[in-house]
Amino acid sequence: MNQVSFVFLVSLAAVLMLPLPPAFAARIPIFCAPDTSCTVENVTATENDSFQLIGSILQAYSVAFVNCRLYSLPQIPQARQVYASNSDLVRLYTSTFVNVEYLDVSYNHLEEFSSSATERPDQLRNLELQGNVALTNFTFLRSLTRLNTLNMAEMNLEGFDFDLLSSMPRLSNLNMSHSNISELSANISGRIVDLRGNAITRIVSNAFPCYNRYNYGECKIDLSNNNISNIEKDAFNEVSYVNLKNNNISDGIHPNAFKGVTKLILSNNDLSNFEFLQQLQTLRTLNLSYVPYFSRCTDSCNVFGTLRNLEILDLSNNEITELPVGIFSGLVSLNALNLRKNSISYIEYGTFAMPIREPNWSPNSNAIAEVDLSYNRINALDFSLFTSGRSIGRLLLHGNLIQYIPDDLAQFGLSTLGLQNTQVTCANLVNLKLKSISVVNDHDDKPVFNKPNVRGIPCISQRNK
């Protein structure tokens, strides 16, 4: 479908560049060639100007305003899609729209959004209000009963009445990030809710009740980069994904704050109480990176208990110096363990042991798929320690000072090693490959061919030894 640009004609006085009297109001005719999709470009209309719609714009399905400076929009009776971002809009008057389903008025200067701006508010499915910092009256939201997506990011929503969203049972995507919100109420609507970058300090009970509201998809709540210190009982009900990165959480999480969570991000919080973890038997992914507590957790450290369904655990960047024996013993489903960028120099026998063994158990029957120990302080490693518990399939040792790897690793269950930026020689790498041990680069690093290497894996040349 071709887009057709509108031609806007202003008054003769404007064409002749004559100054207009303050009370003069231009009547701006708008027309376009027959089509269902139109683009309006380079038009300016003041508060006193009016519009005259001519021809097929009256039947246009989609109208886009590009590089326009408009105090308000003309009445567009048939348009179902309206794009008017960055147009200097100040007001949306009564009956501007009739059948609009998608409306983008982001990054304007809206001060007024009439509750009757669209004659059929139940038709609106997607509303983009992002960046309208001057808008303070949101009562028009009550009539948008079938709204599916609401973007109110980068606005001034301090004191916002979340009850205005209660009339939106179908609201799926709600974005209120970076909007100066300090308080939340209970029963916030939305299946995917983005509240990043606000000033929220507390999550009240039943703030996000995902249960019996959405029969499709998972509920995801992003509350990263706030000032949260307290999370009350049942704050998250059947919410599968919760991001609380970069907050002020220490011991303020109620033991029953989460229900049904499968992925929880708590990185960069000064946590000191982990009692709530014992209730998270549905948890599969847990991010506890940048949590200072683990640098002090050297002896008795029963933080994780028996999280039997946990598959992915991130403890990177925690200044950990040693791993207490038994810390992972209850994580019978652990599949990926990230210990990257710590200060670990030694791993004790039994660190990856399991207290419960099924009949016919062997180290390979319940192996951990990947353990990342990259960029620690390991200069030697006794690989036989992996026979004292669960074996490891993929062991990443990038960035350590380790100098030699024995080539009989297969007997310990290891099949893949990461040895970039170590002191391992090229001859050592060749021997590993001859023994069918796979050697990989660090994450997404490309193969290296401009220095000593084995099939793109950099290594130490014998000449430099």
Descriptive key words:
465 residues, mainly beta, 21-stranded mixed beta sheet, 3-stranded parallel beta sheet, 3 helices, 4% helix, 21% strand, elongated, disordered N terminus
Question: Level of helix content?
Answer: under 10%
**Which oligomeric form is depicted?**
single chain
Contiguous helical run count: 3
Shape: elongated
From the alpha carbons, calculate the radius of gyration and give it in angstroms.
30 Å
End-to-end gap: 67 Å
What value does the average pLDDT take? 86
What summary fits the major beta sheet? 21 strands, mixed
**What is the strand content?**
15-25%
Query: Structural class of the secondary elements?
Result: mainly beta
Number of extended strands: 32
Unreliable stretches (pLDDT < 50, length at least 5) are 1-23
Describe this structure in words.
By secondary structure, the protein is mainly β. The chain is built from 3 helices and 32 strands. α3 (426-434) links the parallel β29 (416-418) and β30. Residues 1-23 have low confidence and may be disordered.
Tell me briefly what this model is.
It contains 3 helices and 32 strands.
Helix and strand arrangement:
Layout lengths: L3 E5 L3 H4 L11 E5 L5 E5 L2 E2 L4 E4 L8 E5 L2 E2 L10 E3 L7 E2 L9 E3 L7 E2 L12 E3 L20 E3 L21 E3 L16 E3 L7 E2 L4 E2 L10 E3 L7 E2 L4 E2 L3 E3 L14 E2 L3 E3 L19 E3 L5 H4 L15 E3 L21 E3 L29 E5 L19 E5 L19 E3 L7 H9 L3 E3 L12 E2 L2 E2 L7
Parallel strand pairs: 1-3, 2-5, 3-6, 4-7, 6-8, 8-10, 9-11, 10-12, 12-13, 13-14, 14-15, 15-18, 16-19, 17-20, 18-21, 20-22, 21-23, 23-24, 24-25, 25-26, 26-27, 27-28, 28-29, 29-30
Antiparallel strand pairs: 1-2, 31-32
